[in-house]
Design goal:
By secondary structure, this protein is mainly α. The protein folds into two domains: about 1-90, Arc Repressor Mutant, subunit A (Orthogonal Bundle), CATH 1.10.10.10; about 100-260, no CATH class. Helix content is about 75%, strand content about 5%. The chain has twelve helices and four strands. Helix 4 runs antiparallel to helix 6. The chain starts with a helix and ends in a 6-residue tail after the last helix.
């Protein structure tokens, strides 16, 4: 997409979903009505109108938008490597957030389904060893001992979080599609969350006790890592702006806390 105006139109519709003509005009204040109509006409095939006469991306338009994101994500490391410190920070953040993986998963999620199942399997083994099971983004004491039940509980937990977030984003924000990559996101987040019980197991194995300070730091690190992964996963899967994705991931955690509190599984 060489024309910067048309690239911006694709970006607006990709990030914000369907927009009316007036909403597009507000986002492109320097453009005349005639010019905007001209560019929308040129973009026919990538942009279409729904029943409410709002403009939205076609399937081909979504593919172009995702390819734009992929290209930009490849170029960012090159831009940042102009200065070594910035390049190092970018690499660290990319590894921490799993951005390259999540971005690629939004483009071809089926490739990552085996990794999603493997992630659930590994987190199940950690839960089985710690005798803890997940409810949302938190661990509670497990009422069972069979490994298959731990695996089933972990799979259902990932599925439940995926379905809840997907439903809310579809109904509230009107962001559709990207279901496969969103499921992969929660499977990977589930694995990173297992860092917390894993650290507890290591402490008990080496020290025969749990050190409160290390336990608290592990809890904060695991939840922070999980929130970052969920945020970027929502951003890429649903083509949302990062600010909305942050709000969505934080809302999921707060709703999770309230659920555990009112069911009596945790107390404060």
């Amino acid at each position: 997409m060489r024309n910067p105006v048309r690239s911006e139109i694709i970006r607006l519709l990709g990030e914000r979903g369907a927009l009316s003509f007036s909403e597009l005009r507000e986002s492109l204040p320097k453009m005349s009505v005639g010019t905007l109509y001209y560019h929308l006409e040129v973009l026919r095939g990538l942009v279409e109108q729904d029943k409410q006469r709002r403009y939205r991306l076609t399937e081909e338009g979504v593919r172009v938008f995702r390819e734009m994101l992929r290209v930009e994500d490849r170029l960012k490391p090159i831009e940042h490597l102009i200065s070594a410190p910035a390049g190092l920070i970018y690499v660290v953040l990319a590894i921490f957030s799993l951005r390259p993986i999540l971005l690629d998963a939004s483009y071809r999620p089926k490739v990552y389904y085996p990794f999603a199942i493997l992630s659930i399997l590994i987190s199940s083994f950690v839960s089985y060893s710690a005798r803890r099971t997940q409810i949302g983004m938190f661990f509670v004491k497990a009422p069972f001992k069979d490994f298959l039940l731990y695996f089933g509980a972990a799979f259902l937990n990932v599925l439940a979080m995926f379905l809840v977030v997907d439903l809310v984003l579809t109904l509230v924000f009107k962001f559709r599609g990207g279901d496969g990559s969103l499921f992969v996101t929660f499977a990977l987040a589930n694995l990173m969350l297992s860092l917390y019980p894993l650290v507890k197991l290591i402490m008990i194995s080496l020290l025969a006790e749990v050190i409160p300070m290390i336990d608290m730091l592990a809890l904060i690190a695991a939840h922070s890592w999980t929130l970052v992964i969920v945020t970027y996963g929502i951003c890429y899967s649903k083509r949302m702006r990062i600010d909305k994705a942050i709000i969505s991931s934080l809302a999921l955690m707060y709703a999770n806390v309230l659920l555990l509190f009112f069911t009596g599984l945790v107390s404060f």
